[in-house]
Input
Amino acid sequence: MELIQLGNNTWYIPGRVNVGYYEESGRGYLIDSGLDDDYGRKLLRTIEGRNVPLAAIINTHSNADHIGGNSFIQKRTGCEVWTTRFEALITESPKVEPMFLWGAYPFSDIRNKFMEAKPSKAVVISNEGTIMNTGLTAVPLPGHFLDMIGVLTPDNVFFIADALFDPAVIKKYFFMVMLDIASAYNTFDLIENSGAQWFVPCHAEAAKNIKLLVDENRNAVRNLSEETLAACEVPRSREEILVALATKHGIEMDASHFLLNQSSVASHLTWLSENGFIEHFMEGSRLLWRKVN
Output
């Protein structure tokens, strides 16, 4: 891991999850913490040469690969963890995430570090405006998860969390994890028009020009909606739609990915339904979806 400087007081640490780092008034701030204790340990080693005490970790949202290093870092440094109210629920009680995706108490196979991080104590911040008593600004980035934020530094570096994904990631997994398609489109527009000097997605390279990546993500979301709509030519359940699309694109899934992808399909069903393209109906004991002629 290495610190790459993007502004006078702003750096990022490239990795499986890109992590932000910012300094102000002799105190350091991490933006997200990676997947697990090992990732957290490496982050601390990376920033220790700065000889600046770590004041807080700012979590953009509570997916396990963004909060997994919290526990180790918090215990080692005594730093605070700042996040929004809905995301704090999962940050402090990570079992809620697999429970949320499964819809009941989670079975053991989905209680892994990719779905359930170690708990950490959180301080709730607003999802918009100045973050605590710093020069950092929280920017709402709805769509991907419950109450995800981006973090804008005074150096005009915009950490945009999971609002955008690398095209290679989209191609590999196909089902982009989105809870709210309409909000995701609004977030794409916000990022494209933000005027930031640098953009740092968590799962794509940092860039000065973000338009191409926004276009690729917008097209990928639109494509999945269109394919979901086509799958509803024949009445199908949510699970049957997922299986049809996964089979078509050769996507293999374990239980965790199945639940994430099922959630993504559900978000597109909601968007298509709210916009009058499909409708649901009950057939026997099955909830099915069909295209509206």
Q: What stands out?
A: The CA atoms of residues 81 and 227 lie 40 Å apart.
